[in-house]
TrEMBL record:
Similarity field: Belongs to the PrpF family.
Listed EC numbers: 5.3.3.6
Enzyme class per UniProt: isomerase
Keyword vocabulary terms for this entry: Isomerase
Name of the protein described by the UniProt record: 3-methylitaconate isomerase
GO molecular function annotation: methylitaconate delta-isomerase activity
SUPFAM superfamilies referenced in this protein's UniProt entry, alphabetically: Diaminopimelate epimerase-like (SSF54506)
Taxon lineage: Bacteria, Pseudomonadati, Pseudomonadota, Betaproteobacteria, Burkholderiales
């Protein structure tokens, strides 16, 4: 379809959308389900309830969240990157999927929604949402939902417990960073190795030195779930157990963003002179990895070095990640199994070839079951399973002032 035809089709679709949309005085209402999924939270919206025009859709989502505003006081946003995420769910556009899912990271103090990359935590809510919305029929005590990740054109399989057509939320599964326990949702990310289309090692190297604005630094760039640049904390001026938990100071943020700039340039995601924060703020991810240490998590609990295999800390939209990104857990699990990467160097036990990897992060420990094989000389992801929990918090109508859409 030509761009002119596509614009015409979008215009016709949005004319119909305006006619059927709910109105309340000078506001419009959109059906919305508000969910906690993993360690994140956000609005789950059906594609059919949104305008087709990308610009109008972005304005609508920003208004739903109350962005741009550092408090997001006039919307559903929680003023953190983990509570400023949106999921759009619609019918599948590939034959091996049950639903399409588009993830958006809603900027807090900018009028922007970034649809690059993915969120492993929000992804855990897609299966329950699809089943309870009638998009996928419940089949047996555990229903497998095949989710097309439109951001990366990959397939995620979620195994969701079901009872009488409803997804239970009570169970024994625990997710570090979420109070209590819940019903286990198993996510298998085996298809997300190489989201950029260049395999697990998109630069062809297990590690390399990048020239940054603040000096050279050794990195391992691995692509599974979300493409991630892994570095040693000491190379960024941090002592492993003492990573910042609230915010980076200006110098630390400059060093981190300089590495992201260099990695994005190496991957061809930005041009010379551009900044990753401006062009691609969510990917590549930047995570620091080190050997296990004893530390105290954000809830004041002691975590012994013997309880986990790898220490990991990362950033989310310029601030320290409060837990550990689900997609980066997938990437970490894969990287730990590739000889020569910085992750493989520090992960315990050395020489591991598969199985459970325990990642120590600010909220506790995250487990991933990963397996990497070989296709010729290239490593391939064969399994990457993570257990998450999710819960429907609210369903109803979210209202948006009409002048926010102009």
């Amino acid at each position: 379809m030509s761009s002119h035809s596509a614009n015409q089709a979008s215009g016709h679709a949005d004319a119909a959308w305006w006619k059927r949309i709910r109105r309340r005085g000078d506001q419009i209402g959109i059906p919305c389900v508000f969910m906690r999924a993993g360690t994140s939270r956000g609005a789950f919206l059906r594609e059919e309830d949104l305008p087709a025009d990308p610009g109008l859709r972005e304005k609508l989502i920003l208004a739903i969240y109350g962005s741009p505003d550092f408090r997001q006081i006039d919307g559903l946003g929680g003023a953190t990157s983990l509570t400023s995420k949106v999921a759009i769910i619609g019918p599948p556009t590939r034959p091996d999927a049950d639903v399409d899912y588009t993830f958006g990271q809603v900027r807090i103090d900018e009028a922007r929604v970034d649809f690059k990359g993915n969120c492993g935590n929000i992804s855990s809510g897609i299966g329950p949402f699809a089943i309870e919305e009638g998009l996928v029929p419940a089949a047996g005590p555990v229903t497998a939902v095949r989710i097309h990740l439109t951001n990366s054109r990959a397939l995620l399989v979620a195994e969701v417990p079901v009872a009488d057509g409803i997804c239970p939320v009570q169970g024994d599964a625990r997710v570090a960073g979420v109070p209590g326990s819940g019903a286990p949702i198993v996510l298998d990310w085996a298809d997300v190795g190489g989201t950029l289309g260049r395999g697990l090692l998109p630069t062809g190297r297990v590690r390399e030195c990048l020239s940054t604005a603040t000096g050279e630094i050794e990195v391992s760039i691995v692509d599974a779930g979300n493409v991630t640049a892994f570095v040693r904390p000491s190379d960024l001026g941090f002592r492993a157990p003492e990573f910042p938990t609230q915010r980076f100071d200006a110098d630390a943020l400059a060093r981190i963003e300089a590495v992201r700039d260099a990695a994005a340039l190496r991957l061809g995601m930005i041009e010379p002179g551009q900044r990753a924060a401006d062009v691609t703020p969510t990917i590549p991810k930047l995570y620091m990895v080190d050997a296990p240490y004893d530390y105290v998590d954000a809830n004041g609990r002691s975590v012994a070095a013997s309880d986990y295999d790898l220490l990991g800390r990362g950033m989310s939209m310029g601030t320290p990640h409060a837990a550990y990104a689900g997609t980066v857990a997938v990437c970490t699990g894969a990287a730990a199994l590739i000889d020569g990467t910085l992750v493989n160097e520090v992960a315990r036990p050395p020489g591991r070839r598969g199985g459970r990897l325990r990642i120590g992060h600010p909220m506790g420990i995250l487990d991933i079951d990963a397996r990497v094989g070989q296709a010729g000389s290239a490593p391939i992801l064969e399994r990457a399973a993570v257990v998450r929990t999710a819960r429907r918090i609210m369903e109803g109508i979210v209202y948006v002032p009409m002048n926010r859409l102009s």
